Amino acid sequence: MRGPLFYAKILLFGEYGIIKDSKGLAIPYNSYRGALKAAKNLSGEAEKSNNCLVKFYNYLVGLDTDLVSFNLSEFKEDLENGLYFDSSIPQGYGVGSSGALVASIYDKYANDKITVLENLTRDKLLKLKGIFSLMESFFHGKSSGLDPLNSYLSLPILINSKTNIEPAGIPSQKEGKGAVFLLDSEQVGETEPMVSIFMNKMKNEGFRKMLNEEFAFHTDACIEDFLRGNVKSLFGNVKKLSKVVLANFKPMIPTSFHKVWEQGIQTNDYYLKLCGSGGGGYILGFTEDFEKAKKKLKDYRLELVYRF
pTM, whole model, 2 decimals? Predict the structure, then answer.
């Protein structure tokens, strides 16, 4: 067997904010992908994946919900026949490795599944997000369900609030000098501990005030600029967001990147922000001159995501 491909995702804007009901914008990232496969003799990564899927199967068996049901007997049989998730999506890098896996399991085994070809009303999108949130909680302890939703639909998604999400049309790429890029921290980040740090910080009134008045404000402005193609204004707002993140989310930024982050803000050669929950993995970069940013960040591996 070979299942359909499910792609990685990048949350361009809204990390942490979407937990607290502010805006977010996620886009598919087709450089990395995964698909369900089966093999008689499993070894290495395939065997590890099969073992993980067995645990996931047991989790789904115990799931008490009216939102979704699965063909668990088929899932079990496939697991016994060597089912695994063959993926190039790096784990712990903030680009949705578990999201793509969840999307593939829903696609293959969910009963009465909502398909991509349907007229995707807001209610259907919210139902899918709710299902994916339940499923992906197995991996992260708490999940918004957004990563699997993005991977499943393979569409840019605009999160206005927890109860208001919609597919978004993003401006087509230009052959300009500006770019969005990924910077490889060469460290694996884990979502759960980072979310725990965030939840602890939320107990602090000053942090909550900052999140509502600065972080969410700049995030919303960035999303609006990006969707409207207001590039000049976008970079001004990304710079403000980068400053706020550096000042308030230091535990989520690997220590060795604090200086690199600061240099971008001071020189205006690039601006960095978290990609997913942080703590390692990829860091997201924005620059008005990608060639210049590459020279400044020559010690790091960069991947181009989007051109302005």
Answer: 0.89
